[in-house]
Every structure is written in C-alpha cells, then in structure tokens.
Amino acid sequence: MAGKSGRTIQAVPQNSAKKMIFSWEGALVVLFIALNIFNMIISPSYNITNILREMPKYLAEIFMLFGMAYILVLGDIDISVGSIVCLSATLACVASNAGLPMVLVIAVCLLVGTACGFINGIILTRFTELPAMIVTLATQIIFRGIAEILLGSGGSVSLKDTSGFNALAMKIGPVPLVFFLVVIAAVIFTVILAKTTFGRKLYAIGSNSTAAYYAGVKVQKVRLIVFTVTGLLAGLCALFLTSALFGANTTTGQGFEMDVIAMAVFGGIATTGGKGNLVGGIISAFIIVLLRIALGQINLNPQLILVIIGALLIIAVLIPGINNAIQAKRKMKSA
Amino acid sequence: MKKKVLSVLLALTMTAGLLVGCGSSTETKTDTAKEETTEETTEAPAKEETTEKKADEKTDDTASADGIAGKTFAIVVKSAGNPYNQKEAEGFQQIIEANGGTCIIKEPEAATADAQVSVIQSLISQGVDSISIAANDENALQSALQEAMDAGIKVSCLDSKVNKDSRSTFVNQAGTQEIGQALMDAVYDITGGSGQWAVLSATSQATNQNAWIDAMKSIMTEDKYKDLELVEVAYGDDEPQKSTDQTQALLSKYPELKVICAPTTVGISAAAKVLQDQKSTVKLTGLGLPSEMAEYIGDDDAHSCPYMFLWNPIELGNLGAYTAMALVQGDITGAVGDTFEAGDMANSPYTLTDAGDGGSEIILGAPFKFDPSNIAEWKDVY
C-alpha cells in the first residue's frame, strides 16, 4: 500500500514547464496535432465545417467523461451510464409526448439521470464491500430493463413535437450549442479536480481509501456525490442525444460506458485510482472522436475502426508500464 | 545502450508509419498537403482538383450512362455481418457500378439508429449524391436524413423504412396485394383447388399479417377460389411453443384440413416441425426464412412444405439502386404517380404509389418463391 500512496504525491499536478512537456498530457497534445495532420491527408472531407457538423453526437458522450474520470480517480467504475442515458432519454420522450413544457422535459431528463446515479451511489456507499463493477453491472441491466418496459413492444418512442429539442440542437454560427456546454463543463470539472480540496480528496481516496478515511475524509459521502453527479451528466448526455435522434429506443446509449472509459484511460487516468487528470482525458476524448470522424469519412470498415481504437488503448495502457520498467532499470544502474 | 536502440527503433517505426500513411492516399492529395501547411490554402486547390476530375469523368462517360458517372451512391445497411443486408448491398452495388457510378457500402458500428446517424453524418461530409438506407428505427434518423436532404443528397430507403419526412421514397419488398395473391395461389395450387385450409398468423394485432390475411380473404371471394374453405385464423403470437400448440389444435379440430398457410417466419417453422414430425398429410406454405425452412421444403410426403415465399434481397438492392439513380437524375421526385425505368427488371417500369403513411413507396413485386430447386442455394444466405 505504501507504493500506492507514494504515487499520489506524483499525481498531484505540478506547474513545471518541463513536467508538462514530458508528461502524458504533453504527448497527447503532440499526438492530437499529428492526428489532425494525418486526418487532413487521408480524408479530403476533413475540415472544420464537417467536423463541427459530425460532432454533436460525440460531444454528448463527452459529458459523461467528466463523471467517469472522477469515478476512475476514486478507484471505482460505473458501467451503468449507457443504460442511464437510455432510461433518461426514454422518460424525456415520454414526458415530451405527454405535452409537458420543454423546461419540465429537461428537468425530468436530468432528474432521472441524477436519481439513477444516486441509486448507484447509495448501494455502493451503504454496502461498501460490494465491488462497483458488479453493482453497476446490475443497475445497467435494471435501468435498461425499466426503459425497455416503458418502451413497450415496439421498443422505441419518437417525439411528437420536436421543436423543443430542435432548440437544443441549435447552432451559434457554425458551432453547436452543445460544444460550448462541453467546454464550460470541461473547465469546471478540470479545475475542481486539479485545484480544490474536493479534488485532492478524490486522489486521496483513490490512492488509499483507508488512509484517506483516517485522515478525516468522508470517503462514502464523496463517493455518493461523485456517482450522483455522474448520473446527472448521463442525463445531460441523454438530453442532447435525444435532440439528435428525436426519440429513444432500447439500444440508445448502448456501449457508451465503454467509449467513455476508453477516453479516460487513453487520457492517462488509471482504472486503479488515484492517477491522471482531466486535461489528458479531454484531449484523448477529442483524439478518439476526430479519429473516428476521419476514418468514417474514408469509409473504413467500422469494425476495423474499433480495432484501431482498441489497439491504441492497449498501447496507452502499456506505455506507463514500459516507462516504469525503464526507470527502474536506470535506478538499479545508478545505485 | 538499450535506450539508444529503443529510440532508433521508435524513430524507424514513426518514419515507416509516415510513409505508409502517405502511400495509402492518392498522390495529388499528399502533394497538396505537403506543399501547403495552412488549412485554407490546402483546401482550395484540393477542391478544384476534385471538381476538375469529376468534370473530366463526366464528359468521358456521358455516352454510356447519362449523369450517373462520377456520382456517388451510398447504401447504409442495418448492421455488419447481416447476410440478408449483404445481399441487398451486393444487388445495389452491381447496378450502380454497371451504370458507371461509384458505390459506397456503409455498415454502422452496431445495429442501432445511433450508429446509423454517425454514418449518415459522415456521408454528408463526403458529399455523396445519394443515400439509400435500411433503417434501424423509423423516426430516429429524421434529423440526420433531413440534414442530408438539405445538403442536396437524395434520400431513399429500402427494406425497412423511415418516416415520410425523412425520405423521398421507400423501396418496399412487400406489397400487401402481391403477397396476398401469391399466398392465395399457393393454397389453391397445393389443395388442388378445393378443400379446407387454415391460417396460422402471428398476433391478432400484427399489422402486416392482418393486412395480408385481409388481402387473401378479399381475393378468395373471386369465383376461382369458391371451393376453398378457410376454416380458422389461428394466432401463434410469433412464439414457437404457442405456434406449435395452435398447429396441433388445428390438426385435431379439422381432420379434413388440407393446407395451413403461415404468413410469419416463426409460425411457419413451428408448423413445419409439427407436420413433419407427425408425418401429417397436411401441407404448409407461407412466408419463411430459407435457413430455418430448408429441412422442411420438398415435393415428397416426407417434407411438409412444398414451397414458400419471401422476398429476394438481391432484387431489392437492384431496385434500390435504380430508384437512387432515378432520384439523382431527376426522373422522379418521390411524388406518388412518378414512374421510372429499372433496367431489365421484371416489373419495370415502376410507379410510385401511396405508402399509407403520407409518403410514397415502390413495390418490388411478387414475393420470391423458395422451392426444392433453389432452397439449397438460399439456405446459407438468410
């Protein structure tokens, strides 16, 4: 356990320029630039207008990255977010079709998400011995199950009146509204994680929750807050997804949890907890999204695209290990 | 030492990667990208070149196919690894390429509307001329497809439709009247023109099945079918067990029964098994999947089903391609009453009819007959 807590000190962000360039985030920035050049070479359709047009659907997913990053830093995991999106989107559509005003529809969507996140949080903090993977696997099935019951035999619901959701899909100039919201959320969540005591508590819990507890951190309260907020973000994702799909069905949000976990892990956030930051997560999210857009534009087989992203993920996970091994050898030599 | 080796290796892989990356794209593109670094300057010459290219191709090929050469036609299927969809896409590609067009077959990442939205968005970016889609959801693609239409892309759907606001027209494999007629003729043929027959349907509310049964009933009022007696319409709810029970009930209730007609894939395979296992003399026809029905199809008494129907996905793809081309060329707009030529297809020229949802549709024609002569070939397809 000592080794683990040692890592915490390293994980706390330091404002040294040298550190920045040689850090994982620095590497991601280089990769991001290289990727854009690569994309421009392979796809003649890869330009700002098209990227902004193709992006809203992916941007909706990025909302959940913020919550997932916090959860991973805690050393937990939440694989139910895709199902929360499905349930929130379904109920938002039902509410909209029942004639509720748009403000209430938005409220329903966000509340359902928050409630689902809260349920995850309550179960995990009341029964702390339960692994988050299994609990959220169960709620993943339950939330989607409830959505499927609500959706009935047809398995889908579509909006009767799309005007409210159309307003959400609006663009300011060429830039979709959701882009600004993602940027705002990104700044807020990054700053909280990096600069506040709440953020420090997350790293402390992720590194060694027992030590954090004895240091006076209300571990379970923090976990409950993080899981609930993640639910809220899933509701937000559902809202913007619905504004693109004009409805919901049994497959809405399927696989989103894995997309988001992939973005976070590629961004250098370790699933073992206590490590990584949102700057890396956000850059990696855009790397994955832009790569998908460009490879889609050259009509690469979608399964091959998934293979490429999977391979990148493995490399991303391997590199810190290789790096550590090299450094350990160097230490041995100098000693 | 080791570190040096590692860095050399890394540098080598990176250069190799660069070379491979450049090699895969066309020469003109890499050149422009290499010469100009800023985005705006790269874009302009690249665009000019492509338009020039297109114009060249057009003048070259105008003699062979009017206005199709140089155009790009995309077909979006429901999912990857779906053999039925693959056959549709093959049929589509065949016709487009024979007419000098470029065909893009797009498979979504997953069998969801969500994944299809990404695919449509990507096709809009590429500036294709036409999108034909087999939709995973009737309404969810509306905003994406409307965006495509706003961008000047002709949108049609085939196999599985999108709502009327999301499409110009729908290429429908299953015309109610055609299916009713084919099934009624099959019953007439198998019974020998007289005797008792029954229907084994899905649920009592199933829209498709009810429409087909109603069509059969109205056809049966014709004089030709006066000796046929429809004894019962049984409902197996598209559950194998209930369909099996219902078949057994029909057999014990009507000893004189000659034919069961099951216009549902679940019902027909359940009934086929019952009849064949009991070595019943009652024969079966209807709509079924070749892969599920192969072991029951045969002319002799050992097999329960002499022949059955479903649609031919290749022909559906062909018609989808002709429809897309007609839309791009402006021969049709998607309005009811428009007509167009579809090469040497059996029912050409086709006319757009009212789809019953406020939009238009094109009906492929009579369903495809699966009998002992072709079932072996089709059972592996779908």
Q: Helicity of chain B, in percent? A: 40-55%
Instruction: Write down the domain tally of chain B.
Output: 2
Largest interface: A-B, 43 and 45 residues
CATH architecture of chain A: Orthogonal Bundle
* Radius of gyration of chain B from CA coordinates: 26 Å
Annotation, overall tally of beta strands of chain B: 15
Number of strands of chain A: 4
Strand content of chain A: under 5%
Q: How do the helices and strands follow one another from N- to C-terminus of chain B?
A: HHHEHEHEHEEHEHEHEHEHEHEEEEEH
Question: What structural category characterises the helix and strand content of chain A?
Answer: mainly alpha
Using the 3D structure, state the CATH architecture of the largest domain in chain B. Answer: 3-Layer(aba) Sandwich
Number of helices of chain B: 13
Tell me the span between the first and last alpha carbons of chain B.
60 Å
CATH class of the largest domain in chain B: Alpha Beta
Oligomer: heterodimer
CATH topology of chain A: ABC transporter involved in vitamin B12 uptake, BtuC
Strand and helix map with partners:
The complex is a heterodimer of chains A (335) and B (382).
Chain A: H1 2-11, H2 17-22, H3 24-42, H4 48-54, H5 56-73, H6 81-97, H7 102-126, H8 132-151, E1 156-158, H9 163-168, E2 171-172, E3 175-176, H10 177-195, H11 197-207, H12 209-214, H13 219-245, E4 247-249, H14 256-266, H15 278-297, H16 302-334
Helix pairs in contact in A: 3-15, 5-10, 5-13, 5-14, 5-15, 6-7, 6-8, 6-13, 7-8, 7-13, 10-11, 14-15
Chain B: H1 2-24, H2 27-35, H3 39-61, E1 72-76, H4 83-98, E2 102-106, H5 113-126, E3 130-133, H6 142-150, E4 154-158, E5 169-172, H7 176-191, E6 195-201, H8 207-220, E7 228-235, H9 240-253, E8 257-262, H10 265-277, E9 283-286, H11 290-293, E10 308-310, H12 313-329, E11 339-340, E12 350-351, E13 353-354, E14 360-363, E15 368-370, H13 375-378
Parallel strand pairs in B: 1-2, 1-3, 3-4, 4-5, 5-14, 6-7, 6-8, 8-9
Antiparallel strand pairs in B: 10-15, 11-12, 13-14
Helix pairs in contact in B: 2-3, 4-12, 5-6, 7-8, 9-10
